[in-house]
Amino acid sequence: MSGAGSPALDVDGRGLTITIVAGSWHDEITNGLIAGATRTLEASGADFSLVRVPGSFELPVVAKAALDAGADAVVALGVIIRGGTPHFEYVSAAATDGLTRVALDTGKPVGFGLLTLDDEQQGLDRAGLPGSKEDKGREAAEAAVATVRALRGLTAAG
């Protein structure tokens, strides 16, 4: 699994406002991602809130609204599992491209916790649940906080 090389990141979230935006499909996996992000943000000292959306396609528009409303960063969490139709490719690409655009358009970080999977077991392995090999919710929250700090460091140095 790719998680073996995960970096150690600065997760000092004191003074930051973070919004977790999470889809509603595949509850067990999504709730694990939310729990990992929540634990990480609590430990970091960040102020945070959770907004649930119907699915992963809705993540970008709500992420942008949260950033426009003053959040320092968003942690986007969702689960898309491949099925027998092209729907997987369309939704995965739209959500990924949309979240990238939100980050670039706002100049604020979006921690990427959108799992695009071939099957449910891959999600369970990455959801931060007991027995999971990885915690992608934690990783997305760490990335969001660390990227806020990196951007602020550039601004302060410039």
From TrEMBL:
Its EC number is 2.5.1.78. The active site is at residue 87. One of its GO terms (cellular component) is riboflavin synthase complex. Keywords: Riboflavin biosynthesis, Transferase. (2S)-2-hydroxy-3-oxobutyl phosphate binds at residues 84-85, 126. GO terms for molecular function: 6,7-dimethyl-8-ribityllumazine synthase activity. Gene3D superfamilies: Lumazine/riboflavin synthase. Pathway: Cofactor biosynthesis; riboflavin biosynthesis; riboflavin from 2-hydroxy-3-oxobutyl phosphate and 5-amino-6-(D-ribitylamino)uracil: step 1/2. It catalyses: (2S)-2-hydroxy-3-oxobutyl phosphate + 5-amino-6-(D-ribitylamino)uracil = 6,7-dimethyl-8-(1-D-ribityl)lumazine + phosphate + 2 H2O + H(+). One of its GO terms (biological process) is riboflavin biosynthetic process. InterPro entries: LS (IPR034964), LS/RS (IPR002180), LS/RS_sf (IPR036467). 5-amino-6-(D-ribitylamino)uracil binds at residues 25, 56-58, 79-81, 112. The keyword Transferase applies. Pfam families: DMRL_synthase (PF00885). The keyword Transferase applies. Belongs to the DMRL synthase family. NCBIfam families: lumazine-synth. Catalyzes the formation of 6,7-dimethyl-8-ribityllumazine by condensation of 5-amino-6-(D-ribitylamino)uracil with 3,4-dihydroxy-2-butanone 4-phosphate. This is the penultimate step in the biosynthesis of riboflavin. This is 6,7-dimethyl-8-ribityllumazine synthase. The gene is ribH.
